[in-house]
């Protein structure tokens, strides 16, 4: 089973940062490769976010120094509190009642469309209005927290939906990626904790060694992916945004074409 769990780690490390729901892909793979039920696959997908937490924490360690970036710290605290208050009960409700009823393809298509529309809007508004992380406000944190909470839904990409929200709030693509990735650290710690506490039965089929190997793989792949996206976005922001939109749309079409919900 080693190569299967490594594959899950690669998928989590790569797709956590793209506008494609890593949860949905992990659910599909763990169902096909490991024979898990949808409930088990969903819980495993949430728990595996712990590996990409480590990747983000390593990459952004200097931003996590509270006294150096106090405004960013306040943004993360408010956004995470709002996300947790909404996402935790939503996760429990979905895992019990709605896991079979969600439209994965439609969610991916919507995120892709929002990213493309934002490019057009920014062209008309003017590129000189792009904001950076230091301009984050309480309003931004509240909006971000509400939007991020929706990422607990299978089919909704946390990176895709939060980057879209930040772009509409006027942030540059580079700083939208940075803020989104930074916010993933406390959000995914909470998500992993909730999955471990409330879904122990669903996670029991994955032994400790396999779970650790998957987390390690996702951390390594995640660290490389973050670096590439941030580096490229600093020089080719619009191109990265178009690429993210196209990936989301293609995955959405694939979901719909194959009949997956």
UniProtKB/TrEMBL annotation:
The molecular function terms in GO held by this entry are: undecaprenyl-diphosphatase activity
Q: Where in the cell is it found?
A: Cell membrane
Q: How does it sit in the membrane?
A: Multi-pass membrane protein
InterPro entries found in the cross-reference section: UppP (IPR003824)
Q: What EC number(s) are associated with this protein in UniProt?
A: 3.6.1.27
Q: Name one GO cellular component term.
A: plasma membrane
**Keywords associated with the record:** Cell membrane, Hydrolase, Membrane, Transmembrane, Transmembrane helix
Q: Name the enzyme's class.
A: hydrolase
Mark the transmembrane ranges. 41-60, 72-94, 106-125, 177-198, 210-232, 238-256
Q: Which Pfam families match?
A: BacA (PF02673)
Superkingdom of the source species: Archaea
Under catalytic activity, the entry for this protein gives:
di-trans,octa-cis-undecaprenyl diphosphate + H2O = di-trans,octa-cis-undecaprenyl phosphate + phosphate + H(+)
Stated family: Belongs to the UppP family.
Per its record, how is this protein called by name?
A: Undecaprenyl-diphosphatase
């Amino acid at each position: 089973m080693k190569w299967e769990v490594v594959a899950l780690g690669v998928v989590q490390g790569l797709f956590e940062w793209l506008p494609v729901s890593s949860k949905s892909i992990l659910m599909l793979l763990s169902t096909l490769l490991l024979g898990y039920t949808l409930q088990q696959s969903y819980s495993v997908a949430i728990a595996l976010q712990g590996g990409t937490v480590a990747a983000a924490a390593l990459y952004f360690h200097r931003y996590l120094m509270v006294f150096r970036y106090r405004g960013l710290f306040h943004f993360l605290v408010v956004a995470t509190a709002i996300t947790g208050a909404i996402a935790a009960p939503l996760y429990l409700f979905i895992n019990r009642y709605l896991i079979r009823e969600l439209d994965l393809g439609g969610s991916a298509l919507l995120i892709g469309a929002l990213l493309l529309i934002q490019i057009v809007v920014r062209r008309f508004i003017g590129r000189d209005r792009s904001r950076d992380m230091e301009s984050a406000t309480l309003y931004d944190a509240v909006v971000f927290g509400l939007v991020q909470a929706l990422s607990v839904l299978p089919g909704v990409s946390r990176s895709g939906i939060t980057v879209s929200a930040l772009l509409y709030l006027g942030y540059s693509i580079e700083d939208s990626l940075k803020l989104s990735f930074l916010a993933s650290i406390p959000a995914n710690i909470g998500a992993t904790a909730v999955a471990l506490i409330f879904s122990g039965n669903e996670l029991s089929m994955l032994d400790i060694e396999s779970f650790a190997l998957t987390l390690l793989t996702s951390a390594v792949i995640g660290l490389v992916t973050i670096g590439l996206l941030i580096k490229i976005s600093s020089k080719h922001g619009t191109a990265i945004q178009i690429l993210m939109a196209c990936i989301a749309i293609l995955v959405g079409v694939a979901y719909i074409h194959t009949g997956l919900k």
